[in-house]
Amino acid sequence: MVEYAPEWRRSLDDPTSFWLDAASAVDWTVVPQRAVDHHGDEWTWFPDAALNMTVNCLDRHIDAGRGEYVALRYHSAMTGTRKDYTYRQLRDRVAEFAGALEDLGVSRGDRVLLYLPMTPEAVIAMLACARLGAIHSVVFGGFAATELAVRIVDARPSVVVTASGGLEPGRVVEYLPIVRRALEAAPGIVRTVVVRDRAAVPGSAASMTGSVDGVRWCDWDEAVAAATPAPAVPVVSSDPLYVLYTSGTTGSPKGIVRDTGGYAVALAWAMRNIYDVGPGDTIFTASDVGWVVGHSFIVYGPLLAGATTVLFEGKPVGTPDAGEFWRIVDEYRVKTMFTAPTALRAIRRVDPDLEELPDGALRTLRTLFLAGERLDPETSRWANDGLGVPIVDHWWQTETGWPICANPVGLEVLPAKVGSTAVAMPGYDVRILDSRGRDVTGTGPGGSTPEGNIALRVPLPPGTLKGVWGSPGRFRDAYLSAFPGFYATEDAGHIDEDGYVFVMGRTDDVINVAGHRLSTGSLEEVLTIHHSVAECAVIGVHDELKGQRAAGFVTLKAHEHVDHDQLQAELVALVREHIGPVAAFRDVTILDRLPKTRSGKILRKTMRQIVDGEPYKIPATIEDPTVLDALVSAVRSGAGTPQKVR
Ligand code: COA
Ligand code: AMP
């Protein structure tokens, strides 16, 4: 077995040889001769190469005689539907839909926005864009019309692909009214909306005809029936494959741009060496195609590897029960599974003794990977003890596209350490910088590193972000300017004497609710829309199930006499309307004043410590300490702090 540490060293000392070797796992139409062009803050992987992503995900497996292998297993706990697609069937569906998109005028470099539930059409539409060299931008179904409109304005897609709707437990989410509102808010950009009619959800293209000026609504099946299958278009390796929006410090989300060739190489490496997945293996990633995890490890990674991927529509609990994940593993002989710690906490809450885990159901499962948020030691122990399967906590971001730190079990199984996301992956030079930007890596006892800002020396490895859509300046400002020569992850943590990285939390105002990344800044922007609100602060507080939840604190404009219960309900509704149900925003507290420093900065950290019941110090710079007393007594009295409003 290859030892991992020398491989990682080689990736940093001789990136050209390391990544050109890794590139041999990909089929190129122009094979790369150069690994990277790097000048200062700019780098391009495989600058002289060309390829097509769907050829790598589909056609080449068929050409290698594996066309009858199952590529995709759709399993809907919401409708009871089960459907398998072989590689050949999936390629044919993708080529047909690519033909339909081509007929709608989509070509290389055009953007197509996808707003789809977890059905095979989501995978087909993503791959169909990739077949044409078009750039997809998937928007998670839990986002509201305003968020959809923001993304339409930024990405300027000519086509939107959607469905009549999604299914949430006890609730049908009709997408078409949401899409219509978004198009009204972002006029003159989208020419065509393709609608996949789902029997389970009312709404169709025909019912929308004429609803928004200049927009044509067409039915998916009809568009496909009229089309001829499209051949794959080779693209330059650095051409964007997709733009995926994620929350940043400001209210406007950042469109993370992913290249094609670097991503293919990185995912091919990760599938084999991190996830230990290859042809004939099945991977079950319980996430959503609206998140980066879905892009990389439901769709592109597994298909690049020639493996079988499970597409699951449902929840870890309640659809129908806490045994659904385990039955999927059993039924589909899953080798590798990936989910978020929140999902395990949800299962643990309703089934602490794992009574819903059938005997022997996990016999094929080799590893359970977790990411998206910090894995708390209690959940980690519960899962380790109860499931009897090695757990790998690994760390990455929408921006990086694949793990920064992990346990590369396909190469060498490293000992696990509770609380750590294990070691840096190839090409990631993980450093800890102190608050003044000094590199303190290895300066602690035994070569360990004290807590600080986790930064990555540039260039970042293949597969990581190519930039922020439409704004090279924003890429530099957001990620590269804080610490020259480094990418700032905005996570804090430390490294132990064995090189194990411990990721402790964000250093910006991004919070993580049920593994979903939200910006408190954008929540604050919404709260201030309300005419009664003078000031507000939103902080991430501890939540037993979701890791964190957003808690809002507002002060009222002078002379406003409002019913507090009603105001709280209105603010909750406002967030749902503007950001969407995904924000899961329910806690609002009305205060007379917000705690601030003399220079006017809101003391968010102290507020969080108070709400979480942690010890706190009254900052020397506080403007008026009695404001904290009022917050403490509001929390203690339960005078609604945090007020639960549904
Ligand atoms: N479309 C529309 N609405 C959606 C949605 C979607 N795709 N996904 C979630 N929502 C809605 C939910 O219906 C819920 O609405 P409600 O306020 O009307 O109840 C709201 O958004 C919050 O959803 P969620 O965060 O999923 O909370 P929940 O209480 O419904 O479920 C869990 C709790 C733990 C079961 C759920 O959060 C979960 O499955 N977590 C795992 C997360 C995960 O896999 N993350 C991937 C990152 S790697
Ligand atoms: P996202 O871009 O939505 O994937 O969120 C990325 C952020 O989630 C990271 O910057 C971390 O703050 C957090 N995160 C992801 N995985 C982990 C992990 N394994 N441990 C701790 N935090 C994590």
From TrEMBL:
It comes from the Bacteria. Residues 523-601 form the AMP-binding enzyme C-terminal domain. InterPro entries: ACAS_N (IPR032387), AMP-bd_C (IPR025110), AMP-bd_C_sf (IPR045851), AMP-binding_CS (IPR020845), AMP-dep_synth/lig_dom (IPR000873), ANL_N_sf (IPR042099). This is Propionyl-CoA synthetase. Belongs to the ATP-dependent AMP-binding enzyme family. It holds the Pfam family AMP-binding. Residues 68-445 form the AMP-dependent synthetase/ligase domain.
